[in-house]
Amino acid sequence: MNVLVTGGAGLIGSSLCRRLLERGDSVVCVDDFSLGTPRHVQDLKKEKGFRLEKRDVAKPGWHKGLKGPFELVVHLAANSDISTGRKKPEMDLERTLLTTFETLQAARALRARGFAFASSSAVYGYEPVFPTPESAPRLHPVSVYGAGKLASEAYISAFVENYGLNAWVYRFGNVVGRRLTHGAIYDFVAKLRRDPSKLEVLGDGRQRKTYIDVEDCVSGILHGVAKSPAGKTHAERFQVFNLSTDGATSVREIAEEAARVLTGGKARIQYGESPIGWVGDVPRTSLDVAKLKALGWAPKLDSLSAVRKSVADYAEWSK
Amino acid sequence: MNVLVTGGAGLIGSSLCRRLLERGDSVVCVDDFSLGTPRHVQDLKKEKGFRLEKRDVAKPGWHKGLKGPFELVVHLAANSDISTGRKKPEMDLERTLLTTFETLQAARALRARGFAFASSSAVYGYEPVFPTPESAPRLHPVSVYGAGKLASEAYISAFVENYGLNAWVYRFGNVVGRRLTHGAIYDFVAKLRRDPSKLEVLGDGRQRKTYIDVEDCVSGILHGVAKSPAGKTHAERFQVFNLSTDGATSVREIAEEAARVLTGGKARIQYGESPIGWVGDVPRTSLDVAKLKALGWAPKLDSLSAVRKSVADYAEWSK
Question: How much is the ipTM here?
Fold first, then answer.
């Protein structure tokens, strides 16, 4: 299968490209290295069937020179660092939404059949039903990032109807693993390396969110595409799945694990007073993943195990 | 009250500006005259408290030189001609979404408190529940225009959380009246003027959609803002209302009315075979408007009466 991956040098993209090559696919990996880095895919460069392209997928016509058709485009590129979106909403609009729009335009031009998209639990905003199903009655995102993800879903839905694409939209929990580019674990490791005596945590640490290991996330993406093929109606061609673990992990658990691994538990952890880490932070996320599980997929690691593995792997990777 | 209206020279904007001036508000009416025309607000220019500004609200910084604060920004500017969005999705993205994003940025800069937005039943796509409530479990738009409206809602929701705006989002049915800029009545009148002997209709004419008279639409916008003031939580500060009549009117009824008024019923009406008028057309729309009605609002005209009045008024206006 010919697969095009945007954001291919990021956390999820770099694992996805590996998995696709292992199963014999040809992969064009596109990244602008704003969050992802060439090091994330360095070992893949020698693989037959792998091609790395430095391109900014927010630019109209970014696909020029690439040759289709692609059986599948997996669009992962985004400003995945949610807290910065507030300071620069115009940057987040460009990185999180316009990347999607221009990748949809590229998918048309490159005669792609399938389009898989990295959406987010952030589309649900403060939805009060836990675990939250895909059919939640409110999609009112509270971060600029979440807005960009819901906006992206909307344009994908319209492109499915108008231009013959088939789409799989995955609303991810917090995805963690070895090649982190942002997030709580990333921040905690950096802070503890700067000063192993203490760890300052944004917010009171009681936020509880659902985490998933990047390898389970990649399995879920490919499982949905394989086991829920597109039908004829719009509903059968635009499919939405939550993708995470059943459980949730608190920021306190993450902070303690980071302090344990990096400093043998010696760092003093200092919590803030706010129930959220920043404006637009959603203090509790829990996703109902029954829809994808009904297709035979299940994560190998639960939420806390995924966090622990990521702390250990990223601490080693980032040495 | 100081009110800023984007798309103020369009069908809805020109009626809204009139109503606001009548109740003593000061109005800054912004339009780029791409769909709206200066003639629509010509008679308002002599009114005290009215200011007309030709500006393109998709351009960053379009508000430069305007002075806030505004109590209310009503954002109506969009590419409201749905069927053209398919041919030029990048145009629709700019006119329907980027106008919203840049008006949100303007609202921040102009220290606006309230933000009322013209969304659309198009956000519901092929939602099969009729009448469709605001809490419909799927928001999967099938037109590029509908995508731009849902994307706009998403960014408004995030701006409410991040930058202190209060928002009222209205998902309109088909709004009709005297100063039409597009749509079935507009097209039928133009066709019958070119050739009074026949009227070719896109699609089989069996599409049934909900219509509302522009004056009732304007009443609904102002009623919601007045009677459902913002509270403290995000849910109380980002409020979504369907805004239309209870009933629906078929394209056949509209075609027959146009042929009757324009040609005394002599035009032969020729229908197509498709159940939709164009790709992305939703053949049936019906909105549950109980939420706004519970606040004491009700339309004066039903769907068919609104259509009939618009055919008569627009035929006269466009002579």
Answer: 0.97
